[in-house]
Structures are given as C-alpha cells and as structure tokens.
Amino acid sequence: MTIKRITFLQELLAFMGLEGRLHLEWISSAEAQKFVRVITDFTEKIRALGPNPLPDYAMAARAFGSDFPSAITIGDADERYN
Amino acid sequence: MKDTIKQWLNEGIVDLFIGYKKVMEHPLPHCFTKANIEEVDDLIIGPSRYALEKIATHISALKPDIKIGMLARDCNQRALSVLYIWNQLNPENVRTLNVNCCPSNLSKHGDCSYLEPETPGVNKQLVGMDNTVDPRDIEGFDQPQRLSRWMYEFQKCIKCYGCRNICPVCFCQECSLEHPELVGTGALPPEVPIFHLVRAVHMAGRCIDCGLCEDACPVDIPLRLLYRKVNEIVRNVFDYETGSCDNQPPFSILGDKATLEPKPLMRA
C-alpha cells in the first residue's frame, strides 16, 4: 500500500513541478549503514534542488493579498530556481 | 423516450425517474414520479448536464430500496459504475435510459456542455494552464514553469467547494477538505497547493473524467486536466482503468484482511 501511494504521489508531484523531493526506502533497524547512506544521498539531492519553493508563493500571496504576485512571474522563477 | 419513461413509471419498473425539466427557461434536474406523470411531457434532453447519479445516491441513502431510473450519458454511466463498485448504489435498483453524448461515427451530433471549452485568454496562456491541453503538453514545460503555472491556477481558488459538491463520485460523509487538521477551515485563500492536491489524490481511481468540476469552477482552474493526469498515473502504474473496471481501485484493500504482497511494484 505504501509503495503504491508513494509511487503515485511521486508522479503527481512531478507533474506539479516538485519532482525529486519525495523518497521511500525500507530500512531495518539492523541496517545502520544503509540508513546513513540513504539519508546522506537524499540530503545531497535536496540540497542540490534548493529550498522548497512553496513558501515563496505563500509569502508573496500574503504580501499582495489574494492576487497572484507579480513578483513571481515565470521569468523570475526561472532565474531563481535554475 | 417519454413513452418509455411513462411506461416504466406506470408499470412500477422504477419508482422515480431523474431527468431534466425546464423551469423558468433553465434546464434543471427533476424527479418525475407516477403521481405527477403528466410532467414527463416537459422532459427535455439537451447539452445541459448534471451529476444525476449524485441525486440518485442521495435518494437511495435515505431509501435504500427505491427503484431509480435516470437519463445517462457516457460520463453518467462511468460514474454509476464507480458508485456501484463503492457500494453507494445498488445496480439492481437503477435503470438507465441512454441519451446522446459525444459525437462519434454513429452520431455526428453531440449533446454535452463540455464540447466547446473556452479558449483561454492571453495572460492565462502565458502564465497559467490552458484548460484544453493534454497532460503530455504540460510535461513539455520545464520544472519551474510547471510549478509556477500550477501555482498561478491554484492561487485563484476561492475555496467554494464547487468542484467537490458537483462531483458525482464524491460521496464521503466526512470530507478531508473540511477536516480542520488537514485543511485549515474558515481561512481564505485556501492553502495551496495542498487543498487541490488532497482532492487530486482522492480522485485517483475514482475520477471518471466528466469535467463537471471544471464546468463548475468559478475561477476556471483546469481541474479536469489535473485529474486526467492523476488517472493516467493510475492507469500506467497500476493498470486500472477508472470507470470501466469492475473491481475497486488499487489504493483500496479488499476483503476482510489485508492481502497485499510485500513486493515493490515499481521503484521510482
């Protein structure tokens, strides 16, 4: 069930433009080295992707009321996240 | 068709028939009964559509044994099949009369309110999401564009719950979208994109692509497009065709006990 849902969610988030930020792994309590490896790899991956872009949208929305913030147009988003 | 409905009602094949009637020049869903059989002459069939099976679900929740007849397009039929699977309606108590729907080789003329979707304006095409495109076209955008365009659409949401209220396959007693710990209630604008993603996840294996949510949306969020993608994932990953499979979707556990094999289906 978990793998079904996570696989589905990974695809959905990718469609939304948030790919690579969700990872599922089975690690037993006896697999300390695997745990370290998975966490290190994922941390590196997330660091490379940069901070979560969603709070920017939320903050901009609060600052500008409910209007779509002019601060985040596609051009700006390109510069910021590329 | 009107004769068939009258015959059904008179012979007691159905206790009531759900169709459309023109009230003050507006085609509205209407319940035809044997007691008011002359009303059947006012039945109209046209491009207007509504989730008639949702009305049927509400009625049969109150009176489980009542026999219901209804007009059905292809989308109504798919919704009915989902409702049967989820035990919301008993197939033995539902009779349908098929009406003209999308144009095809057999019928050149189509009757559906969705046949001519509006072309989006310049700004929407520039920074938003074109409602009329295919999910594959969205994947053509790069990642920041996809996020930005979806966020543009989601941030328009006024949280009217119209998409949920019209949805023929939304039948839960308790809705996650009203759960104070999942989605903040009473606050506007809604938390995006969580609000829409919660609904999208719940549409997996359920959405029958009728497009009524998008018809109902006052701010024109391309919900049909989003749910179409959701079910494309369900089809590609789990080989489940929503609306035409006769078993429950892959996210449900069937039977008295969990019978899931502990194997990864696909590593992403």
Task: Describe the protein's architecture and organization.
The complex is a heterodimer of chains A (82) and B (268). By secondary structure, chain A is mainly α. Chain A is 62% helix and 0% strand. Chain A contains four helices and no strands. Chain A has helices spanning 2-16, 32-49, 54-63, 74-81. The longest helix of chain A is centred in the middle third of the chain and has 18 residues, at 32-49. Chain B has helices at residues 2-10, 52-62, 74-85, 122-127, 135-139, 143-154, 162-166, 194-202, 212-216, 223-238, and strands at 16-23, 26-33, 43-44, 68-72, 94-98. In chain B, strands 1, 2, 3, 4 and 5 form a five-stranded mixed β-sheet that branches. In chain B, strand 4, helix 3 and strand 5 (94-98) form a beta-alpha-beta unit. The longest helix of chain B is centred in the C-terminal third of the chain and has 16 residues, at 223-238. Residues 254-260 of chain B have low confidence and may be disordered. Classes of the chains: A mainly alpha (82), B alpha/beta (268). Chain A binds chain B through residues 1, 3-12, 15-19, 53-54, 57-58, 61, 66, 68, 72-74, 77-78, 80-82, and chain B through 126-127, 135, 138-139, 141, 143-152, 155-156, 188-189, 191-193, 197, 200-201, 204, 226, 229-230, 233-234, 237-238, 250-251, 253, 258, 260, 264-266, 268.
